[in-house]
Design brief:
Blueprint lengths: L2 E5 L9 H10 L4 E5 L5 H11 L4 E5 L1 E2 L5 H15 L3 E6 L3 H7 L7 H21 L5 E2 L4 E2 L18 E4 L3 H10 L2 E3 L7 H18 L8 E4 L4 E3 L2 H18 L7 H6 L2 H12 L12 H7 L2 E3 H12 L5 E5 L7 H11 L3
Parallel strand pairs: 1-2, 1-13, 2-3, 3-5, 4-5, 5-8, 8-9, 9-10, 10-13, 11-12
Antiparallel strand pairs: 6-7
Length: about 350
């Protein structure tokens, strides 16, 4: 059926990540995704790896452009060795405003830069594993020096999966060209958008290198409104309405709005943010938009809802790991059903 990933909350303190990772493993998840926002994603991944023995561990859209591919390669190589082959390196380009304003990094078109980033990583890994001379030369990255006395040794599982986060046509096609998986953004994860827009774009990229598009796992990452009863589900939907209002004020997240004919909503949200009127955002996200973007069900009906929505569309699903373990038994049943058990 599906592989099921547990997405850790971005506010989870580093000290609490081991306990949450063990919990995800006990609940039957295939993998756990560690965000790179408030806690460093690579440190979070190490904490999750050290606390588990079976579950796969991925960085969830590691903000890579402010980091040298060499420093990321060293960390990823170490984590893959430490985990016994359970580590997945998830990379994301992030939006221009944050790359420039938050991280102080020069902006350039993300897809060509990401192609070189991944190419650099694989050249570095090949050097370490097979002794191939390091000689990667691109427009954005150049790596030509690796002294033997500080070269990491070969590892047992050198084929390290690389996930890409992407929304637009170029990044999505790039994932089809060279990634192990594409992880969708919650603003662009509706089943229809994935089937009619994302899948064809993945196929375009796969055709560039003669790959079978089926080799690229499509990971649906929707905001899910779930609870014990209708009141809890509705409360969660309203929380997601507020979050979507903030996210959809960013033009980079508008592909689904364009697809469904809702671009005007994004433009109005963006205008309100520019005016500093944050309190006026939430009412602009309509019930119709929530119906499309936010799967909603009680715990007893969630698995059937997600199977109906994403069956035949996605290969994997990412579900938020709740901070409160009260409903863990219900969550475990959902995970088991999605995995076809």
């Amino acid at each position: 059926m599906f592989r099921v990933w547990a997405a850790l909350d971005l506010h989870t303190p580093l000290a609490e990540i081991p306990a949450h990772a063990r919990r995800a493993e006990a609940l039957g998840f295939d993998g756990v995704m560690a965000p790179d926002v408030i806690t460093d994603g690579l440190l979070a991944a190490q904490a999750a790896i050290g606390a588990t023995s079976r579950i796969r561990v991925a960085t969830s859209a590691l903000v890579c452009f402010p980091r040298s591919p060499m420093t990321v390669a060293v960390a990823a190589w170490n984590l893959q060795a430490l985990s016994g082959g359970r580590f997945h390196l998830g990379l994301g380009p992030l939006v221009r405003g944050n790359i420039v304003g938050k991280y102080g990094t020069t902006w350039s078109a993300p897809a060509p830069r990401m192609r070189e980033y991944v190419g650099s990583l694989r050249a570095i890994f090949d050097c370490w594993q097979h002794g191939t001379p390091l000689d990667y030369r691109g427009e954005h990255y150049r790596f030509t020096r690796q002294q033997d006395f500080v070269k990491p040794p070969p590892i047992e599982h050198p084929d390290l999966p690389i996930h890409l986060a992407g929304i637009g046509p170029n990044m999505t096609a790039l994932a089809g060209e060279l990634a192990s998986a594409l992880v969708t953004h919650p603003t662009n994860a509706s089943p229809r958008f994935l089937a009619e827009v994302t899948r064809p774009r993945l196929a375009v990229g796969a055709a560039r290198t003669g790959r079978d598009p089926a080799r690229v796992s499509l990971v649906a990452n929707p905001l899910v409104a779930v609870g014990r009863d209708a009141d809890e589900v509705d409360a969660r939907r309203e929380e997601h309405r507020a979050l979507l209002a903030i996210l959809l004020s960013t033009p980079s997240y508008w592909p689904s709005l364009d697809y469904y004919g809702w671009r005007e909503c994004g433009e109005r949200l963006n205008g309100l943010v520019r005016e500093g009127r944050w309190e006026a955002l939430t009412p602009l996200v309509s019930d119709e938009m929530l119906e499309v973007m936010v799967p909603a069900a009680t715990w007893d009906g969630l698995a059937a809802c997600l199977v109906a929505e994403y069956g035949g569309v996605a290969d994997a699903i990412s579900l938020a790991l709740p901070a409160d373990p009260t409903d863990d038994a219900a969550l475990a049943r959902v995970v088991a059903t999605l995995r076809g058990e």
